[in-house]
Amino acid sequence: MDITVLPDGRGLPPGSGSVSAGAAVYAKYCQACHGEKGAGKPQDQLTGGLGTLATPKPVKTPASYWPAATTLFDYIRRAMPITAPQSLTNDEVYAVTAYILSIDDIVPADAVLDAKSLAKVKMPNRDGFVSWWPKPPR
């Protein structure tokens, strides 16, 4: 089954999730490995790191490094929780994505994400990558 989600949002499934619902999903399925509010260390940190990429010790997190919020959704849906990949519902994945993005103020604390709104989220490092390929015609 192809569950790929592209950076522009193509492939996002139906469903939605709020930051508050995501906090509960995170506490249940994610916090044991990733720490409170995503602050786990060293390779499991999900938040912070903003402004560190050009330093001698960059902290690569979804907030500091990833150019598209849809990548976070895709990765969570595909690979998490580590003990039961692909076991979360689409609503749970939208919710935990919203929660993680809210920790670094990328989305507001009252955000509800779905296919339309998630694709519109502007990540802090969205312009930090160079595309070697021309944009495909629409």
Descriptive tags:
Cytochrome Bc1 Complex, Chain D, domain 2; globular; mainly alpha; single chain; 5 helices; 2 strands; two-stranded antiparallel ribbon
Verbal overview:
This protein is mainly alpha-helical. The protein has a single domain (16-113), classed as Cytochrome c-like domain (Cytochrome Bc1 Complex, Chain D, domain 2, Orthogonal Bundle), CATH 1.10.760.10. Helix content is 33%, strand content 4%. α1 (19-29) crosses α4 and α3 packs across α4. The longest helix has 14 residues, at 90-103. The chain is globular, with a radius of gyration of 15 Å. The relative contact order is 0.23.
Label the CATH architecture.
Orthogonal Bundle
State the strand order across the main sheet.
1-2
CATH superfamily: Cytochrome c-like domain
Order of helices and strands: EHHHHEH
CATH class group? Mainly Alpha
Structural class: mainly alpha
Query: What is the average of the pLDDT values?
Result: 93
CATH topology: Cytochrome Bc1 Complex, Chain D, domain 2
Give a short account of the largest sheet. Answer: 2 strands, antiparallel
Task: Provide the helix percentage.
Answer: 25-40%
Low confidence ranges: none
Radius of gyration: 15 Å
The overall number of domains is 1
List the helices and strands and how they pair.
Blueprint: E1 16-18, H1 19-29, H2 31-34, H3 69-79, H4 90-103, E2 112-114, H5 115-120
Q: Short description, anyone?
A:
The protein has 138 residues and is mainly α. The chain has 5 helices and 2 strands; from the N terminus they run E-H-H-H-H-E-H. The chain has a single domain (16-113), classed as Cytochrome Bc1 Complex, Chain D, domain 2 (Orthogonal Bundle).
